[in-house]
Write a structure and sequence with these properties.
0% strand, flat
Length: 62
Amino acid sequence: MPNDTALFLGQFLRNPAAIGALAPSSRRLAAAVCAPVPERASRSSSSSGRAPARSPRRSSSG
């Protein structure tokens, strides 16, 4: 059975677009990505914090 490095390089050579990175991320980056995101205070008391709803686009082929 091939080792992990050989398997990784083989997959990279077959389909390089499918590989996200050539080197693994650090533990520090992994911890930062997984850390909880603090909530922000609302800007006004009447704001729901949601983006306004948009109407659907109409097809130009009709």
